[in-house]
Design goal:
The protein has one domain: Rossmann fold, CATH 3.40.50.2300. Helices cover 42% and strands 13% of the residues. It contains 6 helices and 5 strands. Strands 2-1-3-4-5 form a 5-stranded parallel β-sheet, sandwiched between helices. Helix 3 links the parallel strand 3 and strand 4. Helix 1 (28-41) crosses helix 5 and helix 2 packs parallel to helix 3 (87-94).
Length: 171
Amino acid sequence: MSEAWGKDGGRSPKSRKQIEVLVVQSNPADTLLTVEAFRAAGVSSGLRCVNEGKDALSYVNRTGKYCNVPVPDLVFFGLIAAANFSPGCIEGIKSTPELMHIPIVVAAGSDDPKFVRTVYELNGNCFIKKPGGMSEFLQCIETCYEFWTTVVTLSRNARRLGRRFASAQEA
């Protein structure tokens, strides 16, 4: 068996493919926890954070102070409650042809059916109810990252499209 495979037959977090992850989270403590969870899951580079939807849109569009950032392969919204949700950001990403390939994961403490439905109506790719305990949260993030790096095939044109899109906007 290859050394890249763990004892339980799963891929070792250290051997996972690296992707660009943009974390959108308004609470600094939750941001720190989410970042550490992604790092524990195997992200060694490519993890960026913004604290609101407006900044996330600027980031993915590579405008303003974000003009030289890499286009994310995944956007992860970490919400405390539905009240912190920014539907305009998801709409902005999913309605822009150059960005619509970017998967959007929304994680929140509430799984109110109306809220979950709204996420999917906006073409969010995944809704996760955040678990209450620390170890469960770490496992949730590891599973999420494993899914997007080992199960799913992400668009490899993402970075090229993002650069072309940013160049077109500058012209």
